[in-house]
Design a protein that fits this description.
With 392 residues, the protein is of the alpha/beta class. Helix content is 38%, strand content 19%. The protein is built from 14 helices and 17 strands. The protein has a seven-stranded mixed beta sheet with strand order 4-12-11-10-7-5-6, with helices on both faces. Strands 1-2-3-15 form a four-stranded mixed beta sheet. Strand 8 and strand 9 form a beta hairpin. It starts with a helix and ends with a helix. 50% of the residues are buried. The structure holds pyridoxal-5'-phosphate. The site of pyridoxal-5'-phosphate has 15 residues, from helix 5.
Length: 392
């Protein structure tokens, strides 16, 4: 089957695709049509935290699919109840009620609505370089002009303030502010961790002015940064937590967690046909149990430190900076990152970009040290080659 031609012909063509068809995955590896193996530091863009086709998740999906696939939240359901209990157990203290949905951007949409509903205020303060999704509400919080300007006017009353700048946030948060929305580590914006002092100062400004703090842990959640949720690094608790990506082992799912402060929400003011469906919930239960049983957050911290150490030891003059937390790692290059990612693909390693000069690594948390060694050796070879030979 000429699957590339078919996809190119019949999809709207809006994605910037790489010339690779992936047809199978296991753990931290994927295979193309010809059977060639790759180490996958893309992982569906930070989704396959428990590994591709994790056997416990596969089993849970198979069993649930044979029993009940769809059940709207008009009714109660056993898989959903189990999923909600698990989320309550692993999310930060105070987050104890959840709205289930189907993607990251949908979680952010709901979070913004809940914040406006709870406070009766409109204004949302977001960060420069922040990324929260591309539907109109979350796009209003996303910073990059190239995504926003073609669709203006967006939702009014959104402000963008420099990340990690406590004084600017303090000025921007006022008595009209419904919420501040922040990523603990900016992902799409270049893998930039927040400083604990910044997070603590924003938390205090929100408390002082009655604004809610929405932490967007869609990319940083579920062990990615070396803790179950990245806010645990800073000792800061959110009022609203958005989750997606790694939550259900690869099955589409998002969730919004809320603290008591959010209060009671108006019935039917936010709904989703597929939200809380039994198939996704069963996959989430298996995923979250595996994360806890294998202590993947700790593994992520240890393997991330090892990975970053190996990268630092490489000491390439073409690298400007290596940064990240756990297995969320960015390498800022002194040149465009696209050709390097292409050269890595030829070496059998899949990596992401985060902006024009940053290579981003979001491997499954089950990646082995040997696989990390292979990735680092491939990068060392690519960066040792003259720049012209890494170009397309
Ligand atoms: C921090 C953050 N928020 C929101 C989103 C949007 O999620 P989705 O692509 O599932 O809509 C992403 C996706 O990369 C993200 O990284």
């Amino acid at each position: 089957m000429d699957l590339k031609r078919i996809e190119d012909q019949f999809s709207v063509g809006i994605y910037q695709k790489r010339d690779l068809s992936i047809v199978r995955g296991q753990g931290a590896r994927v295979w193309d049509e010809a059977g060639r193996e790759y180490i996958d530091c893309v992982a569906g863009v930070g989704v396959a935290n428990v590994g591709h086709c994790n056997p416990a998740v596969v089993r849970a999906i198979q069993e649930q699919a044979a029993r009940l696939i769809t059940c709207n939240e008009l009714f109660y359901n056993d898989a959903r109840a189990r999923c909600l209990e698990r989320l309550d157990r692993i999310t930060p203290e105070g987050i104890d009620r959840f709205f289930l949905c189907n993607s990251g951007t949908e979680a952010v949409e709901g979070a913004i609505k809940f914040a406006r509903m709870a406070t009766g205020r409109k204004r949302v303060v977001a960060a420069m370089r922040g990324y929260h999704g591309k539907t109109l509400g979350s796009l209003s919080a996303t910073w990059d002009k190239k995504y926003r300007e073609p669709f203006a006017p967006l939702v009014p009353d959104f402000a963008h303030v420099p990340y990690n700048n406590a004084a600017e946030f303090d000025k921007a948060i006022d008595q009209q502010t419904a919420a501040v929305i922040l990523e603990p580590v900016q992902g799409e914006g270049g893998v930039r961790p927040a400083s604990p002092e910044f997070f603590q100062a924003v938390r205090k400004a929100c408390d002082d002015r009655g604004a809610l703090l929405i932490l967007d842990e869609i990319q940083t959640g579920f062990g990615r940064t070396g803790r179950m949720f990245a806010c645990e690094h800073f000792g800061v608790l959110p009022d609203i937590l958005t989750m997606a990506k790694g939550i259900a082992g690869g099955i589409p799912m998002g969730a919004i967690g809320i603290d008591r402060r959010v209060g009671e929400l108006e019935k039917q003011s936010h709904t989703s046909t597929f939200g809380g469906n039994p198939l996704a919930c069963a996959a989430a239960v298996a995923t979250l149990d595996f994360l806890v049983q294998q202590d993947l957050p700790r593994q992520s911290a240890e393997k991330g430190a090892y990975f970053m150490g190996r990268l630092r030891d490489m000491g390439s003059p073409r690298i400007r900076e290596i940064r990240g937390l756990g297995l969320m790692i960015g390498i800022e290059l002194k040149e465009k990152a696209g050709p390097i990612a292409q050269a890595m693909l030829r070496e059998g390693v899949l990596v992401l970009l985060a902006g024009t000069t940053v290579l981003r690594f979001l491997p499954p948390l089950v990646i082995t040290r040997e696989e990390i060694d292979t990735v680092v050796s491939a990068l060392a070879r690519v960066l040792a080659a003259p720049p012209a030979s890494t170009a397309e």
